[in-house]
Amino acid sequence: MVLKSFIEVHPDSHFPIQNLPYGVFKRETASDPRPAVAIGDYVLDLSVLASAGLFHGPLLSNSDCFNKSNLNKFLELGRLAWTETRTTLQKLLSAEESILRDNASLREKALVPMSQVQMLLPIAIGDYSDFFASKHHAYNCGVMFRGPENAINPNWFHIPIAYHGRASSIVISGTDIIRPRGQGHPAGNSLPYFGPSHKLDFELEMATVVGPGNELGKPVDVNEAANHIFGLVLMNDWSATTLSPWIVTLDALEQFALDAPQQVSIVPTGQKDAHVLTRSNFRHLYWTITQQLAHQTINGCNLRPGDHLGTGTISGPEPDSYGCLLELSWNGQKPLSFGGTSRTFLEDGDEVIFTGYCKGDGYNVGFGTCSGKILPSLPEELLQFSVVSASNCT
Amino acid sequence: MVLKSFIEVHPDSHFPIQNLPYGVFKRETASDPRPAVAIGDYVLDLSVLASAGLFHGPLLSNSDCFNKSNLNKFLELGRLAWTETRTTLQKLLSAEESILRDNASLREKALVPMSQVQMLLPIAIGDYSDFFASKHHAYNCGVMFRGPENAINPNWFHIPIAYHGRASSIVISGTDIIRPRGQGHPAGNSLPYFGPSHKLDFELEMATVVGPGNELGKPVDVNEAANHIFGLVLMNDWSATTLSPWIVTLDALEQFALDAPQQVSIVPTGQKDAHVLTRSNFRHLYWTITQQLAHQTINGCNLRPGDHLGTGTISGPEPDSYGCLLELSWNGQKPLSFGGTSRTFLEDGDEVIFTGYCKGDGYNVGFGTCSGKILPSLPEELLQFSVVSASNCT
């Protein structure tokens, strides 16, 4: 029998009792940010449940991890604590259990309509690496820039490639993104110019959220890596890095063996409706998330609770499953037509929306959305800065 | 007349009243980490001075920034607050001022011998970038790997190149470093192997410590960049990244126009004495620290208080001023002889010590030391992990 909550959850919802993803929210009325899980159209305030003494289990009963403004302390507790919490929450929310269901005052305090809250970055992220783990993406990029003969370098098959991303510019879904400026170099011998980015792209990714870390110098065994993974979020790796607000746990995803379809839609500037650009799937990754995590530590590098590991752009084998405009428009050579307009790369005013979910038997385990809109670069007169140029300081 | 403290400071000390660098220390007896400045052979506990109400200035009198376990909040306050603090401290420590000098009980609480404290990482570092700002270093590396014709790529002269480093593995001076392991690839068509790094190096760098940050999407003008810089530390960019514990402020360095000589010594494994390997100078940087900071933000990237910007290896024009073993031994071709032994790269047990100071009139403004010892890679039997290898997960 399918587990049911006393809270009405629409069959299309991403957040049934089988999911219970974690986030951090703030009420409309001023209050401190607090950890929560999503259930249907509500956020369930975990600090209220903790204050009411409803976490009886041995690992959570004496913890203050839900009276924090981020999830870092909860992540550090590890898998047994996460499972204990999930068991407690599924019981409290189930249709048969009266403790919360029949206590109007507690329900009032603990359950807040999603429409009345602001979601925040749920974690103080120490470090974030971004991998390059989709073979189709690596192949397509290689073909574009090096030709089909040398599309994938031999070492790509021996180690999961990654770069280290910047934590300061990670933002929560819904945050506007200002088109970046930088130096470009036209063909020939002319000097570089400085200006707004011409080829602004999205990249459909997911990110692994790290639970307990490891000590500097002590790598994590690939067979132990899953115990260091709390869950997954949607991630758009563009000028800044945008994350979806709800972390879906490995516990919730386990039964789907990470067969998680995702899609990217765009609301073109000046329009109202979203148009689907591409549909991909988490299973298109060549390097698994446990391999990525083990590789990140194999030289002795330490992870800390809340670190993120991006997968890199997730592209499928077919052109309509490519995960970024670089591939979808083949570096601008094949414009995409939709909704009476067309795109090679992103235009100012475009809103990009990622979503994804795993299909269960009568319910979905979903990631919600990860969205952002492109704002134009700041006008020159507001910049007022001297462009750094070649000048010797010695 | 040269400013004098009532505290006896040896003329060779790095920490006279003209310096007053900031760090965070812990007493031998269990207590919380607290901000301090160095004065001679003492650390001056700033939380004690704050509790005694000795910060009267408008910006510091109501701040709790010295009752924190790191300097982030103080850094966020900005240059006016830093200058106010420096003025207060120089007055309190001066030979003519009785408040601290003649109060034995306050002195006892506030001044702790350096031999009785442990220095900690003074900052919760959000992000750290590492530049490549020395032209001599860029040229030498280019000659080794691409030949003298193409030693420096043209774009090197147009933008300060940097990579983004990992914050989790930044450690304080004195921390042992375990030799990393990773994949190598012998010549020819053989498969990669996995094992300890063969060419472990040090890199003589300094790091800029960021004060107030900037908003995402709003770059910092290069002419305003100095107001975002709190100070400088010595930095060894090797397997982990080692920092010296005392941050020397721009206020203290101002008069030297960043003419700051540095040297690297090594205590070879099994020996007791340090041998100087190289002497360089901060002024050998082609790109200044304000140019580095402005460039870091020019695409809209946000900095946060306490972020670090490494300079990259600081090499001078002469072979005895190169900043790393790669250059000093010319990629292993020219072993260095010293103390009855020789080195191309670092051996297990070697201790590397950076130091540096600016020479004033009758005093030094110094950075102290930045040291670390290489420990061998963990034995295979302790690793027990499955090496990540090529396997497809789809």
TrEMBL record, chains A, B:
Mg(2+) binds at D237, T241. InterPro entries: Fumarylacetoacetase, Fumarylacetoacetase-like_C, Fumarylacetoacetase_C_sf, Fumarylacetoacetase_N, Fumarylacetoacetase_N_sf. Belongs to the FAH family. One of its GO terms (molecular function) is fumarylacetoacetase activity. Substrate binds at F132, R146, T313. Ca(2+) binds at D130, E203, E205, D237. Pathway: Amino-acid degradation; L-phenylalanine degradation; acetoacetate and fumarate from L-phenylalanine: step 6/6. Its cofactor is Mg(2+); Ca(2+). This is Fumarylacetoacetase.
